[in-house]
Please model this.
Amino acid sequence: MIIATATKNGFQTFGLSSNFDYEINNKLKFRIEGKLYNSKDKIFMKNTSNNNYSLTTNLTFKL
Model:
């Protein structure tokens, strides 16, 4: 994938993610996941930061 930017260092990023899965029972599962992205330049959120974080949760059920 090639991503063009108008920044000094181009698109140089690093990312980490971690998750925790828990099976409540055989029909219900829960997940929480955290992600961190870091760039040499301020490319996230309209060029105001060089870090981007997210935390998501999911609850899945089987019919």
Remarks:
- The mean pLDDT is 89.
